[in-house]
Each structure stands twice: as structure tokens, then as C-alpha cells.
Amino acid sequence: MRHCSFATRRSLRPAELQWEAWRSGQWEKIGSAIAALESAAEGFDERADIGTIAVACALGYLDFRFSGFDWRSEHARLANWLARFENRESLKASRHFLQ
User: Is 98 part of any domain?
Assistant: First the structure.
């Protein structure tokens, strides 16, 4: 999911220094990561460990920086897990908000 941060930084560059092929490649990598997480989400259950916290943070970052990217519609299992996981008090307390 680190490719999200690459895509963010690239979008801040002037248009003449942005390359569509590079950007498309980053989004393909993000899509592949989400697909892999979708297939693993069933095993996440309700546990909170470094792995599930990292997944929730990465998906939260994706939502925060790329709100127009609708990953949930094609990855319902992962979206449902995240919706349940986000109800944890610890995640509610650390959620990003736009000011």
C-alpha cells in the first residue's frame, strides 16, 4: 500500500513532471494489494494485532487521500471487515478528519 503515498506525492508535481504510465502502474499495484487483502480478509476475524491494524491503517489512508477511489464496491468482504474493525474505540480515537 506504500504505492498510495507515491501516487499522492506524484500528484503534487507539476503536470510536465507527471507520467501517466507510472501513475497507472501505481494504481495497478494498489489494486493488486487490495485484491490480496480481500482474499485474506475472512481470516482476519475480530483479532487486533499488528497485521490487522496495519491493514486498517492502510485502507484508512487510501480513503483519506483518495476518497474518489471506490475499492469497497468490488471488495465487499474486506469492506465489511473494515467497517466492523473501525468500530473499535482505539480506531475511532485515531481516525483522520479533514479540517
Answer: no
Query: 86 in a domain, yes or no?
Result: yes
Q: What nine digits make up the cell of 44? A: 482476519
Q: In this model, does residue 22 exceed pLDDT 90? A: no
Give residue 14's domain range: 2-93
Which tens digits make up the pLDDT trace of 49-69?
A: 999 999 999 999 999 889 899
Classify residue 47: in a domain, yes or no. yes
State the pTM of this model: 0.76
Give me the pLDDT at residue 5, please: 52
Return d(Cα 65, Cα 7) in angstroms, integer: 10
CATH of the domain at 63: 1.20.1050.10
